[in-house]
Design goal:
It is built from 6 helices and 17 strands. Helix 1 links the parallel strand 2 and strand 3. It folds into 2 domains: 116 residues, Diaminopimelate Epimerase, Chain A, domain 1, CATH 3.10.310.10; 150 residues, Diaminopimelate Epimerase, Chain A, domain 1. By secondary structure, it is α+β, with helices and mostly antiparallel strands.
C-alpha cells in the first residue's frame, strides 16, 4: 500500500484567511494520472501538488487543477516547499517537474518557514492581434485602457500567460468576464492564466489572474505568472535587473497574497513567499 499524506496549505501568506490554497500530496510513488486527477478535483483548490518519494532532496512533482494536469504551478510549489521544510528541514530541494528541474530553497526567517523557487529560463512573444482583441472583448476592455509602458505579451516561466497591463486600478478592481468564452480563447492559445496587472510604482505591481482552464474563476496568488512577468519585464528592459518587485494579488477576493519577485540579470526568475497549514 502506498502510504501518503495530504496536506492543505495557503501559499504566499502567513494568514490562513489569505493567500492561495493548495493541496500537497506526498507518497513513496505517484498515483496513476486518473487518481491524481480525482484527488485534485476532490480537494477542490486551484492546484494540488503530488510529490514522490517521501524522503530525500530530489523529488518528482506533478500538478493538477480540478480539471486538468498543469505543467507547472508556483503557489503549489511554495506550499510544497514550506510543507517539506516543516517536516524535513530547511535546505534546497530539487523538484523534477514536467517542465524541468526547479530548485526550491527552503529557509527560516523570524520563526517562519519560507520557500523560494527559481523558474526555468523565461521567454516572451507578442500576442496575435486575434488573441489580443478577443481577450479584451471578453474582459470588456479596450486598447485605450491598456498601459502601453508594459505592452501586451505572451509570457512564459513554466506555463504561458497573457500579460495585460491597465492604466487604472479601478478597472482591475472591477474585473468581470465571460467564463466559458475566455476559457475557449485560452485553450486555443495554450494559456494557463491571464496576468492582468496595474503598476503602482517601480517596486509594487497589483495582479489578478483568471484561471478558467483550471475550472477556477480567479487565482489568488500565481507564482508561475509572476515569474513569467518578471522575465518579460527584464527581457524588454522595462525594468533594470537586478530588481526586487512585490506583487500584490488576491486583495479583491479577500485572500490577500504577497509574492516577492527577485529578477537577476540572467537566468531563471525567483519568486518567494511563506505558507500556512490549513488542515490535513
Amino acid at each position: 500500500m502506498n502510504s501518503h499524506t495530504l496536506e492543505r496549505l495557503a501559499a504566499f501568506t502567513s494568514n490562513p484567511q489569505g493567500g492561495n490554497p493548495a493541496g500537497v500530496w506526498t507518497g513513496q510513488s505517484l498515483p496513476e494520472p486518473s487518481e491524481m486527477q480525482r484527488i485534485a478535483a476532490e480537494v477542490g483548490y486551484s492546484e494540488t501538488a503530488f510529490i514522490a518519494p517521501n524522503s530525500g532532496r530530489k523529488r518528482t512533482v506533478r500538478y493538477y487543477s480540478p480539471e486538468a494536469e498543469v505543467p507547472f504551478c508556483g503557489h503549489a510549489t511554495i506550499a510544497s516547499g514550506v510543507a517539506l521544510g516543516k517536516k524535513e528541514g530547511i535546505g534546497t530541494y530539487q523538484f523534477e517537474t514536467a517542465i524541468g528541474t526547479i530548485p526550491v530553497e527552503v529557509s527560516e526567517h523570524n520563526n517562519e518557514i519560507q520557500a523560494a523557487l527559481t523558474s526555468v529560463e523565461p521567454k516572451f512573444e507578442l500576442p496575435s492581434q486575434t488573441l489580443l482583441i478577443s481577450a479584451l472583448a471578453t474582459l470588456g476592455w479596450s486598447l485605450d485602457d491598456l498601459d502601453m509602458n508594459i505592452p501586451p505579451a505572451r509570457a512564459f516561466g513554466g506555463n504561458w500567460h497573457l500579460v495585460l497591463a491597465v492604466k487604472s486600478k479601478q478597472l482591475l478592481d472591477n474585473l468581470s468576464y465571460d467564463f466559458q468564452a475566455l476559457k475557449k480563447i485560452m485553450l486555443e492559445d495554450n494559456l494557463t492564466t491571464l496576468q492582468l496587472i496595474w503598476r503602482e510604482n517601480d517596486d509594487i505591481i497589483h495582479s489578478r489572474n483568471p484561471f478558467p482552464v483550471g475550472g477556477v474563476v480567479e487565482d489568488s496568488a500565481t507564482g508561475a505568472a509572476a515569474v513569467a512577468l518578471g522575465g518579460y519585464l527584464r527581457e524588454t528592459k522595462i525594468i533594470d535587473a537586478p530588481k526586487e518587485i512585490l506583487i500584490l494579488q488576491g486583495e479583491i477576493m479577500g485572500r490577500p497574497s504577497k509574492l516577492h519577485l527577485s529578477i537577476e540579470k540572467v537566468g531563471g526568475i525567483k519568486v518567494s513567499g511563506t505558507a500556512v497549514i490549513l488542515s490535513d
